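Lab notebook page, bench 4
Experiment: in silico fold of construct C2
Operator: M.H.
Input chain length: 603 residues
Purpose: comparison with the prior construct
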Amino acid sequence: MQIISIALAITAGICLGLGVLHLFLGFRVLDEKATYLLFAFFAIGYGFTALGSMTRLTSQTTIQYLALARWSFPVFCSVYIFLIWFVAFYTKQFPGKFVGIFLVAMTFIFLFIGYQLPKEIGGIIFTTLPWGDRVTLSEADGNTWFLFWLVVPVVSIYIFIACIRQFRRGERQEAVMLCIGLLFLSIAIIFDTLIDMGLVNFFYISDFGFLPMAIVMSLQLSNKMVEIQKKLSQYQLKLENIVDERTSQLKISNEKLAQELIERQQVEKSLQKSERQTRALLDAPSDIAMLITIAGEILATNQIGASRFGLSVDETIGKNLFDFFDQETAAFRKNQKDKVVQKKLLQEWEDQRTGRYFRNRMYPILGESDEVESIAIFAADITEQKRLQAKEMESAAVEERNRLARDLHDAVTQTIYSASLIAEVLPQVWERDPNEGRRNLTKLRALVRGALAEMRTMLFELRPTALEAANFETLLEQLGDALHGRTRIPVQIECDEIPDLIPSVKVGFYRIAQEAINNIIKHSKATQIQIELRKRSGEVLLRISDNGCGFDPAKTSHSGLGLEIMQERAKNIQANLEIDSQINQGTQITAQWMAPVQNENEV
């Protein structure tokens, strides 16, 4: 008896100490507070259960024993309640619909057992241990004790399943530690069941069954707390380094700001120089600059502006600007000047004089009454810029021709070359095997149709207006023929009759389909493609589907698959673009445009 009492006292001391320790830890941690607090209550409850068992074993009278048993059983049931809730939070199985129902159900069952079982204790029995000590055990009547031993294995199975899920989720160390504690608890439950069945003559060891669980999980939670503190220390050190770096950068910025203030002061002193220096700065730009009144009288000008009229600056001031131009040019400039005065806004235009190009600007200068008092005029010589633009346009045209040549070589030429090879050997093949000849004739027909579709597509690229005027179903068929001729992939096209599809929407849908087909050729490895154009009430749907390898839209760079281009095309026509794809399950791209219809037949 003394050995068991000492063991129970040690068990109670360990569990109460662990419970108090993790109670303090639970109030300190920010994350997983519930996990630490539930474990603390579990350990404290288990400690009091061990103390109750020790007190019962050392009780002197039967009445005292039964009284202690009646309050210790509810405490023992509360240990199971805290255990299952701790496991749920520890393994991250809560909250969850089915887990929550299970936990609530187990809680009420253990509360019922803890309330009912003391009422069914009818007496005590004695048993002799192998080393000669006699221990006193309680004897209960009714079905509550049977219900208790029925529910306990269910709890063990639940903990085991939670361990498996935690292990598969990647938290292997945490799951193994919990399984170790569960192993000792299961052994204790099985052993006590053998005692109840009369197969073993011993005292119930369930009083010690939770001790390994408490020790192992305490070590695991403490180790986790140490890791958290270590990470916090690392974060703190990193934060200090960032603060030092930002402080250094701020110091450098302050030094630069001080230098800028010195430079600004120097600039302000420079701006206070004489009128002669200001005039020199005014004459420095290559643009014509002058200031005129509303009537057109020149108030100020730079040297370049005066030299354009063959006069000096002093000779130009006071003259009317419009007198220097012919009647038609002067009328146009007066009209621009009137717009500046009326609208109080900048007026800008380009013109050509004496073989050179100029960009002209008129700015209103407002007075205190918010009315235009004078007008600033600037005229920049853009002859060289025009020459460069013409050169760039010529280069762009050359580049476009080169692109078309590449497309012809990569698509049409290769297709026609393949067709010519088949046509060359077709007579011999037909004489040898008519069936094979028919198959080659079908291939030849597909290649020619594909080449024709490729050529028509290029013609549409050269003449965008023809793309707007073409029938959309015909456009899709050409895309399908071109794709089939190039890749031999069968293309199924289904279109509802939509007679009045808006040209901009037609072009947008065509570009989306074109980009989607390019993606299929490059990436999908598909063996079948379907293109649909459907008209619903108030909307038009374009859907391109394939049975290729698919991809994960969340993990794929949109720019790499041209998806951003399709999104931009859809946005331009105010349509919604949906991309549905899964690995090895193909891809489906749907463009949805809400048509501003007036009746059912007009879109």
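Observations: The first helix runs from residue 2 to 28. The first strand starts at residue 121 and ends at 128.
Next step: discuss at group meeting.
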